[in-house]
TrEMBL record:
<protein>
    <submittedName>
        <fullName>Heat-shock protein Hsp20</fullName>
    </submittedName>
</protein>
<dbReference type="InterPro" id="IPR031107">
    <property type="entry name" value="Small_HSP"/>
</dbReference>
<comment type="similarity">
    <text>Belongs to the small heat shock protein (HSP20) family.</text>
</comment>
<dbReference type="InterPro" id="IPR008978">
    <property type="entry name" value="HSP20-like_chaperone"/>
</dbReference>
<feature type="domain" description="SHSP">
    <location>
        <begin position="39"/>
        <end position="151"/>
    </location>
</feature>
<dbReference type="Pfam" id="PF00011">
    <property type="entry name" value="HSP20"/>
</dbReference>
<dbReference type="InterPro" id="IPR002068">
    <property type="entry name" value="A-crystallin/Hsp20_dom"/>
</dbReference>
Amino acid sequence: MADRPNPFESLEELFGRLNRQFGDKAQTWEMETGGESQFDFGAASTNLDLADHGDEFVVTVDVPGYEADDLTSSISGETLLVSGERERETADDEDDRYIRRERQLQSFSRQVQLPEPVDVDAVHATVNNGVLTIHLPKLEASGASHSIDID
């Protein structure tokens, strides 16, 4: 029997996008309320830890199967955004006949509010054995006094 395209592929992609969007909204709501979310959106989320190490914050994110090129992170104000996206591996051999194929596009997006401002120029991140670690040095309060003009 000839290989036929999956008639439900576009629906699966739509459900995947909706799943990611609901996951992002639930995580934003969780961040704004400061509580634990009761929503479970499966592959659209990943575990994240935020630790205070005195002079820096350390964010640790489980990213199994993601390479450094699959991940992005940014800081906006005091909010850290970490996201990743990877696509299904495509086989070079067109004669492969899968009995079951579930490994498709996967992505996640997480936001976390940092308790204090950080030095964005000194932030660095590494990925090792499926764990993303981001070091965020805190901004040091300067001991210098600044005069304020009074009108």
